[in-house]
Amino acid sequence: MMTSQGDRPGVHMAAEIAEQPAVLAGLLDRRSDIAGVADAIAKRPPRFALLAARGSSDHAALYAKYLIEVLLGLPAGLVSPSTVTLYGAQPDLRDVLLITVSQSGGSPDLVEFTASARERGALTVAVSNTPSSPLHGAAELAVDIGAGTEKAVAATKTYSATLLSLYLLIDAVRGGKGADAEGIGELAQQALDGSVDSVQRAVDRYRFVNRVITAGRGYSYATALESALKLAETSYLAARAYSGADLLHGPVAAIDEETAVLAVTSRGKGGGAMGDVLDAVSSRGADVVAVGSAAADVPADVRIALPETAEELSPILEILPAQRVALGLSLARGVDPDNPRGLNKVTKTR
């Protein structure tokens, strides 16, 4: 996607970040549509669940993996589409739930994998922002995240809307009505409004950094992955994401005074497990930005505190200031995040 002549750099990404509270509130109002899909799943209880996705949607799928395993008590895994599309594997998927997550719904490998899984007995569900997409046609059931057209190459509102859609779907499968998500639009607005100054401090502090590590545990590991992707694709930073547990199993040795660490620390079991990680990176001289509802309580050089919500919903709020940090760093480094080099809005792989 090329930025239109006369558009300021980053104007689309900034606008779409700001749209998210309204998008999330609107999605919550349409939860009955998602409940219908969940009811169809509940009537065909799966043995286990698989998730297929690429890019930002893959991070949303990882979030859904945690939801399925914790809230539904089902084994869940992320598939490798190339086992089918390149190697011609034909796994037995009877009584398996396959959720394919794709903002565009147009990646050939995801469409082919979904169609193949349906033929081989899986109950297939497409979660996408494009109801007219090939993916919706390939799947038996579909969830429209309804985020509206996204002009910036970097996914922002489609990512957070996908997270909420997946939460509402999985919560409804267990008989929930999304009660913990009530007011999520207002909380998202608070998260954006309340983090302006701390986001700017992070941008000012890290505009010249070249190496960033992002880390989170549990549900928030998805936030760490998505934050690293946003920093890499908008600011061309060497950003690497780790589970906090994996970071301590070796990679922490590479952290020093030249390393910036974005640590996702929300209240709950995942955020509580980040204590050893923060101690380890701080002891090595890393400069730490803490993002989350527990940010005020941890050792960090910059704290981006967010409203508290149920732990399984915290990634929806955590990603908002991280998106703005990526936007701010991109502009400060002279890059147009609406038109990153070598990228297109829809990436087609096989």
TrEMBL record:
Where does this protein have coiled-coil stretches?
A: none
Annotated keywords? Repeat
Domain SIS residue range list: 37-179, 202-340
| InterPro entries assigned to the protein according to its UniProt record, in alphabetical order | GlmS/AgaS_SIS, GlmS/FrlB_SIS, SIS_dom, SIS_dom_sf
> A Pfam family in this protein?
SIS
Q: Which CDD domains match?
A: SIS_GlmS_GlmD_1 (cd05008), SIS_GlmS_GlmD_2 (cd05009)
Q: Name one GO molecular function term.
A: carbohydrate derivative binding
- Mind telling me which residue stretches traverse the membrane in this protein? none
Q: Determine if Repeat is one of this entry's keywords.
A: yes
- BP-aspect Gene Ontology terms: carbohydrate derivative metabolic process
- This protein is called what? SIS domain-containing protein
